[in-house]
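Worked example 3 (structure in, sequence out).
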């Protein structure tokens, strides 16, 4: 963990012990439920944690900001962001019960008071949030079809309200199908030397653009 601290100067000193405890707990859970591939768990901090923490170099949140992490899986990036942004409130959702059970256990054992975990689909959530997050959940058109009504406009934070999506690979085809483009593309290859981060990005879509996202041509669900 010490090796990555200098890369994220905006993460508070209070957050690092919680992130260290999180890493221990996640490894324990990964022995029971395959949250991260067995061969990749040894790179938990350098790759998966760092992947999520990268947003802290670009985003500052005001008190009371509300965020929904859709398809949270084992809590990526939702739990990690909740540790780093205790002033904000996070709702973590996933349709798979065993994953939400893990997330709830992590929330309880880490003593996180700013997180709710729910087993449901995004379409069932009728509230609006300042930001929607997702990490490699689905193709962009389908993902946006789930959350189009859940993001509200606003500019209280360091970047405008919207969608923050962790995405890898070629972007052009999916962005063309989506019909809107990110206002900001964070190229993680420029932050990290590890080849793992080649063609990995965090995309910020402004809430004002989200209603214009095209429907997917064919739903996979």
């Amino acid at each position: 963990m010490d090796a990555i601290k200098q890369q994220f100067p905006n993460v508070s000193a209070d957050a690092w012990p919680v992130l260290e405890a999180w890493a221990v707990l996640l490894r324990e859970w990964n022995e029971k439920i395959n949250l991260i591939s067995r061969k990749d768990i040894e790179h938990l901090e350098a790759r998966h944690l760092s992947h999520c923490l990268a947003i802290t170099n670009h985003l500052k949140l005001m008190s009371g900001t509300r965020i929904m992490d859709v398809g949270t899986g084992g809590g990526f990036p939702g739990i990690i962001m909740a540790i780093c942004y205790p002033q904000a409130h996070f709702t973590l959702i996933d349709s798979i019960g065993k994953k939400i059970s893990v997330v709830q256990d992590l929330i309880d054992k880490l003593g996180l008071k700013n997180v709710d975990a729910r087993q449901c689909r995004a379409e069932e959530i009728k509230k609006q949030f300042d930001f929607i997050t997702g990490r490699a959940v689905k193709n962009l058109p389908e993902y946006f079809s789930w959350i189009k009504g859940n993001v509200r406009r606003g500019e209280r934070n360091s970047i405008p309200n919207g969608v923050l999506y962790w995405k890898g690979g070629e972007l052009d085809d999916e962005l063309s199908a989506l019909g809107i483009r990110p206002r900001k593309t964070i190229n993680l290859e420029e932050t990290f030397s590890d080849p793992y981060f080649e063609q990995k990005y965090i995309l910020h879509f402004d809430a004002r653009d989200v209603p214009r996202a095209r429907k997917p041509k064919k739903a996979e669900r």
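Notes: Helices lie at 2-5, 15-30, 44-53, 78-84, 97-110, 140-147, 172-178. The chain is about 30% helix and 20% strand.
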